[in-house]
């Protein structure tokens, strides 16, 4: 979907021999397989209809998010005029957060016969926050991560993606720095990528990310503690989900390994 060469350290499916555009049909087979599996395994349970509705709703939201992401390109080039934080947040919410975080927890709640709307609302709030953190972390590692550690070769800069890094850079950049972004962002050339990465470092974006990481960790931790206090919500201790993306002591070592040496280790508190 995003033109990547590898995923989790292996060639992307569409890059395999004799696949190519057939991958589109393969994705439709997978999507429709969801409903076959749901009917076969869960049609006798109360969660069946809510699960169907949830899959349909989140599939639509994900497609909307992908459309917003695709519309950031104009004639194959990044349309920097629409690279705003609002557009970025909408892309993250619909393209990533709903299906990656909200969907699996909502399904688990239905399977446990938890249909209370307030429970779902509380969980959804935290899960969407986690989704945003996850995507911003992914954007950062795409640029500054080590592919041998992350399992993914970064392509956001050369593809002209609307990422957290470029949006913040555009907010901070001087007119001269914006000209650099206009000239090199979305250009598939190692020198162009290096120029953009150097500009990110000049604008102290690694340090900004470190601050964001710490503040978001504390915010999500507070929200998890609040939802876990109520006896009606103790069924949903989201610390397990929190640990998937929050940079704890063990994950800090991984982040340190995956970052370039120019990232300030003091600011990261690694």
TrEMBL record:
Biochemical pathway: Pheromone biosynthesis
GO terms of molecular function: (2E,6E)-farnesyl diphosphate synthase activity; dimethylallyltranstransferase activity; metal ion binding
GO biological process, one term: farnesyl diphosphate biosynthetic process
Cofactor(s) listed: Mg(2+)
This protein's UniProt keywords: Magnesium, Metal-binding, Transferase
InterPro entries hit by this protein: FPS1-like, Isoprenoid_synthase_dom_sf, Polyprenyl_synt, Polyprenyl_synt_CS
PROSITE patterns per the UniProt record, alphabetical: POLYPRENYL_SYNTHASE_2
UniProt-listed CDD domains: Trans_IPPS_HT (cd00685)
A single cellular component GO annotation: cytoplasm
Keyword flag Transferase: yes
Family statement: Belongs to the FPP/GGPP synthase family.
Protein name as it appears in the record: Farnesyl pyrophosphate synthase
């Amino acid at each position: 979907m995003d033109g990547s060469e590898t995923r989790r350290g292996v060639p992307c499916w569409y890059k395999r021999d004799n696949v190519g555009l057939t991958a589109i049909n393969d994705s439709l087979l997978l999507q429709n397989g969801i409903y076959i599996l749901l009917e076969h395994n869960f049609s006798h349970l109360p969660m069946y209809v809510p699960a169907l509705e949830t899959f349909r709703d989140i599939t639509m939201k994900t497609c909307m998010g992908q459309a917003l992401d695709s519309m950031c390109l104009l004639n194959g080039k990044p349309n920097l005029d629409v690279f705003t934080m609002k557009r970025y947040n909408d892309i993250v919410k619909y393209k990533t957060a709903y299906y990656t975080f909200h969907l699996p927890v909502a399904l688990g709640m239905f399977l446990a016969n938890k249909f209370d709307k307030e429970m779902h609302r509380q969980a959804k709030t935290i899960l969407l926050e986690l989704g945003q953190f996850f995507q911003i972390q992914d954007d950062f590692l795409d640029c500054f991560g080590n592919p041998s550690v992350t399992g993914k070769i970064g392509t956001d800069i050369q593809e002209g993606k609307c990422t957290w890094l470029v949006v913040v850079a555009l907010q901070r950049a001087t007119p001269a720095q914006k000209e650099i972004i206009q000239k090199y962002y979305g250009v598939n050339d190692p020198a162009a990528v290096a120029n953009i990465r150097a500009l990110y470092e000049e604008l102290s974006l690694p340090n900004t990310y470190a601050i964001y990481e710490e503040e978001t960790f504390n915010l999500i931790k507070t929200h998890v503690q609040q939802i876990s206090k109520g006896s009606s919500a103790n069924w949903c201790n989201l610390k397990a989900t929190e640990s998937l993306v929050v940079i704890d002591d063990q994950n800090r070592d991984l982040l340190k390994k995956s970052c370039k040496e120019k990232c300030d280790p003091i600011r990261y508190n690694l």
